[in-house]
Amino acid sequence: MPPDSPLVADLAEQDLLDRIFPHLPVGSRTLVPPGDDAAVVVAPDGRYVVTCDVLVEDVHFRRAWSTGEDVGRRAAMQNLADVAAMGARPVALVVGLVVPGTTPVDWVEGLARGLGAACRPLDVGVVGGDLSGGPVVVVSVTALGDLEGRPAVTRAGARAGDVVAHAGRRGWSAAGLALLTAGQADVDPELVAAYRVPEPDLAAGPAAARAGATAMLDVSDGLLRDARRLARASGVTLELDDPADAFPEDGARLAGAADAVGARASDWLLAGGEDHGLLATFPPDAPLPPAFRPIGSVTGRSLDPVLVGGRPPQAASTGWDHFGA
Amino acid sequence: MPPDSPLVADLAEQDLLDRIFPHLPVGSRTLVPPGDDAAVVVAPDGRYVVTCDVLVEDVHFRRAWSTGEDVGRRAAMQNLADVAAMGARPVALVVGLVVPGTTPVDWVEGLARGLGAACRPLDVGVVGGDLSGGPVVVVSVTALGDLEGRPAVTRAGARAGDVVAHAGRRGWSAAGLALLTAGQADVDPELVAAYRVPEPDLAAGPAAARAGATAMLDVSDGLLRDARRLARASGVTLELDDPADAFPEDGARLAGAADAVGARASDWLLAGGEDHGLLATFPPDAPLPPAFRPIGSVTGRSLDPVLVGGRPPQAASTGWDHFGA
């Protein structure tokens, strides 16, 4: 960003808002746009999907590693992915934003531009928000969606005999973060870009719902951890193929980064978070939507909720925790 | 709180969530409860109202002055007030929560208890959220509501000849904060309580809509500042009565605190924020709902958007800004 950007503290709140709003689409399904006490959004089938995710500076991102636009796109995408994971079409976002007074205004404008860039092509409106000072940047996004008359696809519907399938990348975000942490971003800049801004296929969620998916979730905390959640919610066991068989292209892609930082690509495939792929189960006779590939099968509940290559998983990490050791 | 409360960092994330969830009502209009990627909520008339507000530690509250329960109740109430200000009935909340690892778990449980205490009597469900670490407590609440088939009451519908009316307390929160800041909380503990937890009359919003209110907003940044917003959005001037005439009970109540800290009660009446009363305009022949009292009238737009006692306002402060000087 240009070194001469004013800082947030240099502007009145309204002036800062005036710089943010032009970047944010209103959305064609917004009846009362932002600017009042609340917005009004259509819910054509009499229901809406709602979810919330928070990004905190130095917990989920670093300003040294991510532009404002990266953070805005990522904040939008990870929330829209949760909407898609219910089988719903994203419609609207609201954004609670905390920024230190020392933040360059350009960075905040970039964040708004990133939110807009993620939302505009999907006709998702940014229909409200709030802005406050504080010691670090916090981006709290609530995303809203439309089930288009279909039942919600929860985590709880998987049945023995179903096919387990996955849509999207595996391990790219974790590998990109590892490269950044090791100062080796140049080994594979595309992995680093995947860490900075996940690009989930949001149409895959409604497509899975139309195809009869019995259960689905957004893989945000790693395949093993999220597979376990789906298995427990459904009372089944997920028997996943060996990661090298399930994700051959991703495995090949991650090999160079794994070598560079002394990690195992299979750990990233199984435990890497933040890719925001979709994990879903389908009846055995359902044709999988194009974005999905089969990676295992559902059995009745056995001792372990998740098996990998027929055995309990041995990955170094099974996901991450914001507070724990 | 007991000195032996464990800290957030002592618990795994799931253990912390297990302490929070029991305090939060699901709500009778929640179709898919929290625990999945997203919740599903009913929208009986095919629309919903949505709004977002953020509370940041040491900006909007201090942990030395407010319990977790206070902060939870306040975070819920100020968002529900925005829903009510559209004439809607609050239905659901989602909460993005940031807490430092050094926070006592009891404080976080108190916050959940406060959210629940605000929501349960109104059948408002806490239908989702996210939890993260960070350097200070941040509570980002998104509130959702049901217009029950009525048009939304925006800020933009006031017409010359309308009555200006107000529901709720004026100046109590600002006076309470001033007492706390001056170390004189014992002068009037009820004012201090009003600062810690506003208690807006949420039923007054839908009641105003049913009575034909032409414009309405939640008074969060002070009467003058919010009256100016309504006047500008509607293209009118609001002629407000002198505060001593408009709010005689509040004025009398604030006198002692004003003496104690060397402030003017009329400044709190005109410019004090965070009471979350409702400012509305009604057609001249509409009977006002019981919570409202007339405080002025609407005229065609003159030079000033707001007049007080026939003159441009002279208050020391016209509201507050999160970043500006």
Description:
Two copies of one chain form a homodimer. In chain A, strands 8-10-7-11-9-12 form a six-stranded mixed beta sheet, sandwiched between helices. In chain A, strands 3-6-4-5 form a four-stranded mixed beta sheet, with helices on one face. A two-stranded antiparallel ribbon of chain A has the order 1-2. Chain A has helices spanning 13-20, 68-84, 105-119, 172-181, 189-196, 204-210, 223-234, 243-246, 248-261, 265-271, and strands spanning 30-32, 39-42, 47-56, 89-98, 125-132, 138-146, 163-167, 215-219, 236-240, 277-282, 292-300, 306-308. In chain A, β4, α3 and β5 form a beta-alpha-beta unit. Chain A has ten helices and twelve strands. In chain A, 31% of the residues lie in helices and 24% in strands. Chain A folds into two domains: 8-146, PurM-like, N-terminal domain (60s Ribosomal Protein L30, Chain: A, 2-Layer Sandwich); 163-308, Phosphoribosyl-aminoimidazole Synthetase, Chain A, domain 2. The longest helix of chain A has 17 residues, at 68-84. The first copy, chain A, is an alpha+beta fold and 325 residues long. In chain A, α4 (172-181) packs across α5 (189-196), α4 (172-181) packs parallel to α9 (248-261) and α9 packs across α10. Chains A and B meet through β2, β3, β4, β5 and β6 of A and β2, β3, β4, β5 and β6 of B. β3 (47-56) of chain A pairs antiparallel with β2 (39-42) of chain B, so a sheet runs across the interface. Chains A, B: Mg(2+) 2 binds at residues 53, 82. Chains A, B: It catalyses: thiamine phosphate + ATP = thiamine diphosphate + ADP. Chains A, B: Mg(2+) 4 binds at residues 37, 51, 82.
